[in-house]
Amino acid sequence: MPILMETPMELDLELNEDDFPYEEEILRNAYSVKHWMRYVDHKKNASKLVINQVYERALKQLPGSYKLWFHYLKLRKKHLKGKCLTDEDFENVNNAFERSLVFMHKMPRIWMEYLSFITTQCKITRIRHTFDRALRALPVTQHNRIWPLYLEFLNKYDIPETGVRVYRRYLKLCPEDTEEFINYLAEVDRLDEAAQQLAKIVDNEHFVSKFGKSNHQLWNELCDMISKNPDKVVSLNVDAIIRSGLRRYTDQLGHLWNSLADYYVRSGLFERARDIYEEAIDTVKTVRDFSQVFDAYAQFEELSLSKLMEEVTTKERATADDDIEIDLRLARFENLMARRLALLNSVLLRQNPHNVQEWHNRVKLFEGKPLEIIKIYTEAVQTVQPKQAVGKLHSLWVEFAKFYEVNEQLDDARTVFEKASQVEYIKVDDLAAVWCEWAEMEIRQENFQNALDLMYRATVIPKNKVSYTDESETVQARLHKSLKLWSMYADLEESFGTFKSCKSVYDRIIDLRICTPQIIINYGMFLEEHKYFEEAFRAYEKGIALFKWPNVFDIWNTYLTKFLARYSGSQLERARDLFEQCLENCPPNHVKNFFLLYAKLEEEHGLARHVMSVYERAVGAVQESDMLDLFNLYIKKAAEIYGIPRTRPIYEKAVEMLPEAKSREMCVKFAEMETKLGEIDRARVIYSHCSQMCDPRITQDFWQRWKDFEIRHGNEDTMREMLRIKRSVQATYNTQINMMSAQITTTVVGTTETTKSAMQALEAKAAETNFKQTLVTATGANIMFVRGEVQGGDKKTEEGAVYNPDEIDIDMDEDDSGGENEDETVELKNVPIEKQSIPSKVFGGLKKNDSESE
């Protein structure tokens, strides 16, 4: 049976037999926390009352034990699970916490447990007092454990006044959490104080946002807050704050200006808002900011107009004042939209006021408004600095003067040009353009003498010599060496001046050494028009002395052409001397034209041998690209003058001098010429020589030509000889390629002598096989020969001789004269295989026959 035992607390306890050992230990060690905890653990399955009694007995003996109090309070809170807040057990637990704090008031964990427990009980004043007691009881170093619970309590209940006051106390300890306070103020609609706090952190350069916001983002938040809530934010000077932001953040001017205007719009100060928009449009410097402000301005005017119209329509009867107000707002809106391009142009000019093209664009925007155009031009020429101008500054002055000219205000136009001529431009050409435009204006007004006087003024040579390229001097001091100005002066003198004055201008240009080949040519043609031919030739000679090749090409070409047209053949020696002077230093790329003129002169007025001499010199002087054309012309003239046989030396020289590709073409022409003359052996020798530079894999056309030639004029032996040469040439090219491959292989891989020998054996075997296959194919193709006329007599084959198609006769055969001169015989079998130009031993037989035929 359970035994009732009276405790020191005068409580009746139910003790079982299992409890006696623990009770005895408690009696012996009443102040041991460990024994009490063992006892509590033993009674963990007992009823709530029993466990609480054990804890109460323990705490009476050990009231300063944190461990006992912590577990006891935690157990008591656990027992409340599922109960209503109005249950008296909640108050009992609160009393337990209060009793614990008598001894545990320095323990933050006990305070935290108590605060988190009491916060759920909706007793606002008691909770606030408890938080305040905790903060007073604990040292300041442990307040950071209490404040999060305190702030959580403020956010949980709608107690704005208490929350604001508590947050103010909290910021004294943690000013870095000001943003949380601002968010709280915004939530409780205390925007005025929120704006004040936000303004403080924006002005604080050392403030670091816990949310990673930059100072610029905080500025934008402040502007949005104060601009959208003008009726709630009353303690700040909104205009001054936003304008300070405009000075600090120049990359976000559009947004800040819109915020300021929005503040006045929401405040009902519409006229003031319009002033802000106009000020913004007149000050922003980027197209992006302008677009933001202009769009907001247009939207404001549109909404203002639509709202007024809605109000008028809702009235039963509209008054005259309402109609006037509607017309006024509509006119404002239309005027704003019409000014958009001009306002945008002003933005671009504020970006760079020295942009000449933008000033021209601005003038176009005000077309039809002369007073505005004059103001724009006046402002432009006063604003744009020559050294900073982007574009041609002189064009502003010229267009300004043309504007007065179009409006028939010539005196004003001359005044503008006069001022323009005094501007210190960067380049001399700009000042020269001003003078030229001034003169052209006078020409358009038919004041020709005034134009000549202007050119004379502009080209006056100063007393002190100044270099044209000396940028330290003003452009006015260097103007007298402007070729543009002198060229126009010369044109004006030719058109409206006298012969003497025009000649004087050209002579001054030459004396200043600023002329060009075109100026010299123009001078010569001017003198020629006035029948001063020798003066013209002297002008050409002056130009020739001033310039070098290739600039002098046009002068020489014009000079020689004019001279030949003038004197024809009457001064042949003088013409020859001119040609010799011209050709002395003439580069190869320009010499062809002069040699053709020289040859034409000799052909028409000189001797035939002189013509041939000129062509002989020409083919050696011109560049390779022109050499073939000149050789063809040389051969044509030689055939016309001396006959076709005299062209053979020219053909031989062409074959030697021309590049390989063109030399093959010349060889074919040479062979065709010999064939037409009936010299079949000569043609065959030429084909044989040309074959040494014709790879059969590339130049198949040549080999086909030779094959057709042998079919028409040769016999079986000559065909076999042609095939033999073809195989030899092909083997030569293959050997060259193989040798290159072997050298590369030896260099890279380093093969041994044994490997080389094996490779050579394989190559020799392959070459032999290819040779036999080619020979069999060529001889077994059943080619039908058309026997031509034998030049040196018939060759007879001994009867009964065994014919071997693979046999190649390499012995020297006697020529048609019975072998009297073996060195001069024409035999294909002895033609050397090596690639070379036409040697004398190849054409030796031809030369003898040439002399005989002649």
UniProtKB/TrEMBL annotation:
<feature type="region of interest" description="Disordered">
    <location>
        <begin position="794"/>
        <end position="833"/>
    </location>
</feature>
<keyword id="KW-0677">Repeat</keyword>
<dbReference type="InterPro" id="IPR055430">
    <property type="entry name" value="HAT_Syf1_CNRKL1_C"/>
</dbReference>
<dbReference type="InterPro" id="IPR011990">
    <property type="entry name" value="TPR-like_helical_dom_sf"/>
</dbReference>
<dbReference type="InterPro" id="IPR003107">
    <property type="entry name" value="HAT"/>
</dbReference>
<dbReference type="GO" id="GO:0071014">
    <property type="term" value="C:post-mRNA release spliceosomal complex"/>
</dbReference>
<dbReference type="Pfam" id="PF23233">
    <property type="entry name" value="HAT_Syf1_CNRKL1_N"/>
</dbReference>
<keyword id="KW-0747">Spliceosome</keyword>
<dbReference type="GO" id="GO:0000974">
    <property type="term" value="C:Prp19 complex"/>
</dbReference>
<protein>
    <submittedName>
        <fullName>CLUMA_CG012587, isoform A</fullName>
    </submittedName>
</protein>
<keyword id="KW-0508">mRNA splicing</keyword>
<dbReference type="GO" id="GO:0000349">
    <property type="term" value="P:generation of catalytic spliceosome for first transesterification step"/>
</dbReference>
<feature type="domain" description="Pre-mRNA-splicing factor Syf1-like N-terminal HAT-repeats">
    <location>
        <begin position="18"/>
        <end position="176"/>
    </location>
</feature>
<keyword id="KW-0507">mRNA processing</keyword>
<feature type="domain" description="Pre-mRNA-splicing factor Syf1/CRNKL1-like C-terminal HAT-repeats">
    <location>
        <begin position="386"/>
        <end position="765"/>
    </location>
</feature>
<dbReference type="InterPro" id="IPR055433">
    <property type="entry name" value="HAT_Syf1-like_N"/>
</dbReference>
<keyword id="KW-0539">Nucleus</keyword>
<feature type="domain" description="Pre-mRNA-splicing factor SYF1 central HAT repeats">
    <location>
        <begin position="179"/>
        <end position="384"/>
    </location>
</feature>
<dbReference type="GO" id="GO:0071007">
    <property type="term" value="C:U2-type catalytic step 2 spliceosome"/>
</dbReference>
<dbReference type="InterPro" id="IPR056350">
    <property type="entry name" value="HAT_Syf1_central"/>
</dbReference>
<dbReference type="InterPro" id="IPR045075">
    <property type="entry name" value="Syf1-like"/>
</dbReference>
<dbReference type="Pfam" id="PF23220">
    <property type="entry name" value="HAT_Syf1_M"/>
</dbReference>
<comment type="similarity">
    <text>Belongs to the crooked-neck family.</text>
</comment>
<dbReference type="Pfam" id="PF23231">
    <property type="entry name" value="HAT_Syf1_CNRKL1_C"/>
</dbReference>
<feature type="compositionally biased region" description="Acidic residues">
    <location>
        <begin position="806"/>
        <end position="825"/>
    </location>
</feature>
